Amino acid sequence: MRAEKVLDLLAVVWVCEGEAGHGWVLDVAAESLIRGVRTLGKEGLVEMADRETRAELSAWEGRPVRWAARLSAAGHDLLAYARARPAPASCPPESGVREVRLLPSQMAALRVFVGLGGQLKSRPAEGLVERVRTAVHDRGAGRWRLYLTREQMVSVAYGLWLHRLAGSAAEANRFSRDYGLHYQPPAGVPLEATAL
After folding, report:
1. What is residue 143's three-state secondary structure?
2. Whole-model pTM?
3. CA dihedral 55, 60, 61, 62 (to 10 degrees)
């Protein structure tokens, strides 16, 4: 089941739970909902009522209840997480912004860099932390998509240069090839005095 379908179905279950006085989605739901809920149950995203709970619900409803379901803790948390995620930008939000596609290893290195933020003398460019947080993963291409200003791209090059010096040059070399940016500290200037 696709992620969008799972989230849509979880939202329907959540609404139905809220409308029911007992907090369960019952067997009178539409057949398509029943099939979907069973699939979510196999994934651990919904809790299926046991025999005792179905007997209590039958008494509540005044009819036999064959099955009932409600969001599990994981289903509730997934729905909350999906709603809290920032909406991905579908196109550059402003002029002077360029689409950048990073491999997972590059994105991991960039996350370390922006995560250090306040501990660095040369901090990430303004807005870069938010751009990293709202990056979208393109599953087909296997890359993370960000929209960055020139200043933010230079900052990414600096972060990948730090990653290079710490042990892996592949991420910085790839970024340099793809975007023509390679951070090089000015000659004769101590590293701690170098600023972007």
Report:
1. strand
2. 0.56
3. 80
